Amino acid sequence: MHDIRTVTGPLTPAAVRGPALAHEHLALDLRRGTDRAAVLDDRHTDAVIGELAEMREELGLSLVIELSCRGMGRDVTALARISKDSGVPVVAATGWYYEPFHPSEVGDAGVEELTDTLVREITEGIGPEGILPGVIGEVGSHGDRPSEPEVRALKAAARAAVATGLSVATHAQLGRGGAAQLALLTAEGLPPHRICIGHQDLLDDSGVHRELAERGAYVAFDTIGKESYQSDAVRLRLLLQLVAAGHAGRVLLSCDISRHGYLRGEGGQGYGHLFRSFLPRLRAAGVDEDLIDLMTRRNPIRFLTGARTEEAT
Questions:
Q1: Which positions, given as ranges, span the membrane (predicted)?
Q2: Topology (CATH) of 4-303
Q3: Model-level pTM?
C-alpha cells in the first residue's frame, strides 16, 4: 500500500493506529441564499482544533478525511494549521460538489479540461504551499440521476482518479442516485473499491446499500448525529442490516460536520458524536470490537490507498 497524502506530508498506513473520520469538514463556506450558518472559518478554527485534540487524547483519533473541495470554501492553509495544532493528520480533497455549488470554472468546460484541472492540482498541489490532496471528493449529484454538469464533473473525477491513483468520495444528495454515480464512475475505468458512495444513511433502503456493497463500492454512513435529516435509530437499523448481510468491510462512518452550529461549543453534537454516542449503541446491539475497528480504521485506510480487502490490517 502506498502512503496516505495528508496536509502535513505523507503518512504510512501503519501509523494510523486509531479510528478515522471518513467524511468531515473542518474549514468550509457553503453560505448562499438565506442559509448563512453553513460555514466553518477562522472564527471557528480554535474550537475545531480543540475538539480534534480532545478526541486524539480520549479516543485515539488518528485521521480525518476532509471533503471540502473546489467551490466549497476549501482552505488548505487552515487545514494545515488545524492538523499541526491538534496533532491529528488531515487529508485534503479536490473535485467539485453538486451543481448548485459549482464554481464558474465548471460552466461549459469539457470533461478533458476538467480532468486536467484536477490532475494538475493533484500533482502540483493546492495554493502557494502546494499542499497535495489525498482524495477526490465530495463530488456530487442530486436526484436519481446526475445533471449534465454533474456528469461532466463526475467523469472528470473518475478520469483524474485513474490517472493519479486517488480514490473518489461522492455526495449523493439525501442518499439518492448512488447507483447512477457508481455506474458512471466505473464506466470511466475506476474500480469500485476506489469509490465511496456518500450519505447512504439518509436513504432508508437497505436493498440499495447491499447492491452498492455487492458491486464493490464503499457505502458511507457519514451524517451520523444529524437528527434533523434522519434519526440515529434508523441509521443504526440500516447499518446493522448491512453488517448482518456480511458487508462490514464496505462501510465508512463519519458525522459530516458542515456548519458551526454542530460544534460542541455551540451546543451541537460535535465531531466525536460517532464515538461517544453511536458506537456504544452499535456495541450494545452486538457488534464486536474487530468489526468496529474494521469500519472506523481499516476501511478508511483501504479506501484511501486502494488496497484490496485482504491487504490492509
A1: none
A2: TIM Barrel (3.20.20)
A3: 0.97
